[in-house]
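Model it.
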Amino acid sequence: MDESVFTLLLKTAQGLTLFGTLRFSIDFTQPVDPAQAANAAKPGTGDVASLFSQVQQQATFDLFAYRIDGSVTIPFVTGLRPVPITGLALFTFLGPPATFITSSTDPTRNLFFQWNQLTNDNIAGGLVWRPGEPGELIFSALGTQLSA
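Modeled.
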């Protein structure tokens, strides 16, 4: 598993601008089991299957989910210690990742971070620091990958 490292530029709606670092690696050895997501489409009380059968053309595409683990460091927010994150990387059959969805594994430093790959070296997304708490901060994020 190769580690990807991005420098981050984070900005709030109020104009607070901070720098940070994102590190993560994707575990391609074992896809995440999509069974829980598939349960929502099973025939049942809502009978989603009967609704789909009425559609003239069924446009479907497959997403492949892989586990990612990493860390985020924003010195003026998280302190100097990295905040561990874990989540999913969603891929289509051919092409770059569709999106990355992560959250903190440290309950005392709670954050959610979602980003998309713009180019091979650039990402954009959003980060929420301490969601639901009085000190909640919402950042838009831009990142550039560092060369290996």
